[in-house]
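Data card: per-record layout.
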Amino acid sequence: MSGTTVQIVANPDAGSASRRRLRALERAFKAAGAHVILSESRSGGVDIAVEADHVCVVGGDGTLRHVLAAVRRAGRSVTLSLFPMGTVNLIARERGYSRDPATFVARALAGGLRYGHHVGLLGETILSGVASVGPDSLAVAGLSPRLKRRVGRLAYLLSFLALLGRWPRPQLCVATPDREIACEAVYVAKGRYFAGPWSFAPQASVEEPLLHVVALRSATRRDFARFVWALWRGHPLAGRPNLILFSCTELTIDGDTAPFQADGDIVATLPVHVTIASDILHFA
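The structure for this 284-residue chain is written out next.
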């Protein structure tokens, strides 16, 4: 909409960050009649401009998490959009955001709301897409930020391969208000996708106030390989004896000390308590 004030919040350290694409996006917003405010977001977060009507997040899922936290702190209603320019862009994939600046801007400024995003919360920390504790979170914890900037998502694979020789297996307990499960790895989906075009909870949606959980009773190398193979092949996970699948609105994960990753970043160590936020964030 002409006359809209758009705050573009970009992460210059995002995995596929490009000044050229950022400038193209800025030009597209201005060509559509928007006033543009440029901001940066790193791990320290960002402040939402008082005059902003719309906040465009430029980066990946980790950047989105920081900006959503800033929007919640601001305590006022703005619409959001997500221009995919991170190492992994799971939420942008789920919501079908275009990588073409002109097409993206036309959607962002079209008016009206496309969807409401129900986020998960660990205290004040946001979970927008997917979280885990187990082999994946250990690989994220061992990730080299410098290598990630150089080679993108390949850095996750290299960090994971480094685990194969020692392969820790933390003993975990997942608890909801009505059950407890002993396990060695836990995956929590707020959105549909995981690590790219794969999904361990294809029924999950950011538009629904639910957490979808897969717990691995055992997470040996072989058990984990079987789980990953099923994901890659798109095979149903229900009914597999080593997997426990359920949905809930809150859960606690406790046990051996282990890192907990959300949206590709380590955000806590166990124990963690995850709930669904009572407010809804609005996206164009």
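Known properties of this structure: The chain has a mean pLDDT of 92. The first helix runs from residue 19 to 31.

See the next section for split statistics.
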